[in-house]
Specification:
heterodimer; A: mainly beta; six-stranded mixed beta sheet; five-stranded antiparallel beta sheet; 11 strands; about 0% helix; B: mainly beta; seven-stranded mixed beta sheet; four-stranded antiparallel beta sheet; about 55% strand
């Protein structure tokens, strides 16, 4: 099955700096890569996602890049703010034309943004 | 749109008893619901996938007789932890995918914190 590795496990940055979280996946058939933000005791919130037919996607301060050849994808957060502090999870899934797909999550990265 | 709720948000039960957790899609029909388990400071581990009207598909290592899943309607799935033990204490989160959503996206419920004493 799919295996997703995520690094680093903890990332501390100063407010205004950029943060980068990297993930690798094992199954070359994976075609959907979402990123979730989870605050303590709360539900994971989808913040950005990318499909395998796209190399990069950006939404304001957040961007995701995908390298299918190397089987890795990254989350980039610019101009970090204290409210960006949370645990971030990457995930990968294989979505067949019909039926359903399941998400395989990375182990998470705790991002701490200091004022 | 795409709101998923869970009930209860937290529950404390005694060892040996059973606990039922409900997951509802509030504004869409959830053709597929997923149940995850999350231990403190760990990732989400998929327990099972259920499609409306059919039996759930359990992940390897998850006991189907202990974690009973029923996807009775297009808006409701339930997870029953039977004969709960302290090691079952965890954060249980459901997610759902609906007909009108793409085949890719899942939306998560707020989670249920189960404590077994």
């Amino acid at each position: 099955g799919e295996n997703v590795e995520q690094h680093p496990s903890t990332l501390s940055v100063q407010e205004g700096d950029s943060a980068v979280i990297k993930c690798t996946y094992s199954d070359s058939a994976s075609n959907y890569f979402p990123w979730y933000k989870q605050e303590l005791g709360k539900r994971p919130q989808l913040i950005i996602d990318i499909r395998s037919n796209v190399g990069e996607k950006k939404d304001q301060r957040i961007a995701v890049t995908l390298n299918k050849t190397a089987k890795h994808f990254s989350l980039h957060i610019t101009e970090t703010q204290p409210e960006d502090s949370a645990v971030y999870f990457c995930a990968a899934s294989i979505t067949p034309p019909t039926g359903y797909s399941t998400l395989t999550f990375g182990k998470g990265t705790m991002l701490l943004v200091s004022p | 749109g795409a709101v998923v709720s869970q009930h209860p948000s937290w529950v404390i039960c005694k060892s040996g008893t059973s606990v039922k957790i409900e997951c509802r899609s509030l504004d869409f029909q959830a053709t597929t619901m997923f149940w995850y388990r999350q231990f403190p400071k760990q990732s989400l581990m998929l327990m099972a996938t259920s499609n409306e009207g059919s039996k759930a598909t359990y992940e390897q290592g998850v006991e189907k007789d202990k974690f009973l899943i029923n996807h009775a309607s297009l808006t409701l799935s339930t997870l029953t932890v039977t004969s709960a033990h302290p090691e079952d204490s965890s954060f249980y989160i459901c997610s759902a995918r609906g007909r009108w959503l793409s085949n890719y996206e899942q939306y998560f419920g707020p989670g249920t914190r189960l404590t077994v004493t």
